Amino acid sequence: MNFVVLTIFPEMFIPFWEHGIIKRAVDRSKISASTVNIRDFAEGRHHTTDDRPYGGGCGMVMKPEPLAASIRAVKKKQPCSRTVLLTPQGRVFNQKIARTLALSEGLIFVCGRYEGVDERICDSFIDDEISIGDYVLTGGEVAAMVIIDAVTRLIPGVLGGADSAEKDSFSEDLLEHAHYTRPRTFEGTEVPEVLLSGNHKEIEKWRLEMSLIRTFLKRPDLLKNRPVNTQEMEILEKWCLDIRKIIQARQSLSGADSLPGN
Ligand code: 4HQ
């Protein structure tokens, strides 16, 4: 995977390339990562990259010529790379998009500043428009970092052993179960007994159950459009039965005592 970021603030990426998983992926030649300063492609004594909007109004717009020249220069070296513009108007980034982007040979991220880029760049130089969420950033740089981070960890050989990428097919698209490490008691709170049992089958069952219940309670939207396998169905049915028992115990109580609203 070749990442190239087009930006007027390439310095922002120096610490980003040089830490953690990204650095390891570069060192192991799983990815290449570089920035191109759009200003280097701007003409004139001041290498201006922005200009006033036609039609008036406040704010500035990224001029098309330096963007076009920098995209062309990178495309010439990497013709198979896809160009991605970071914009609130793009499709909203998620793990599924990360998986597709990870299959690409290379990605060229175009980071706008100010009010955004001249529309003619979007029309003719961009393959994909992506947003990292419905809020307003001051530039596309942070959004590009988010996407590069999520994509890099999906590239085969980047995460190894200790931090595996995507896990057993069943816990996919669920929230993570709770995690614990030493000490066994922290400020009066114990680690769940089952995790100390050494019974790996029970531990896996507990983890799946916790993933499911957390997803149901915190992010029910994630369960809506997702297939449910037999093991998960068994867990859901067990809860269903337990809840029904509580309701029935209530109903027989209120029936005996005939307490309305109880
Ligand atoms: N931008 N996801 C860059 C964003 C954004 C987002 C606003 C893009 C400002 C100049 N990018 N322009 N949300 O808010 O990707």
TrEMBL record:
CDD domains named in the record: TrmD-like
The main place the protein resides is cytoplasm
This entry's Gene Ontology molecular function terms read: tRNA (guanine(37)-N1)-methyltransferase activity
Q: Which GO terms describe its biological process?
A: tRNA N1-guanine methylation
Name where it's found. Answer: Cytoplasm
**UniProt-listed Enzyme Commission number(s):** 2.1.1.228
Catalysed reaction, written as an equation: guanosine(37) in tRNA + S-adenosyl-L-methionine = N(1)-methylguanosine(37) in tRNA + S-adenosyl-L-homocysteine + H(+)
Q: Per UniProt, where does S-adenosyl-L-methionine bind?
A: 112, 132-137
Alphabetically list the UniProt keywords: Cytoplasm, Methyltransferase, S-adenosyl-L-methionine, Transferase, tRNA processing
| Domain annotation tRNA methyltransferase TRMD/TRM10-type: ranges | 1-224
Instruction: Relate the protein's function as given in its record.
Output: Specifically methylates guanosine-37 in various tRNAs.
Designated name of the protein: tRNA (guanine-N(1)-)-methyltransferase
Provide the gene name from the record: trmD
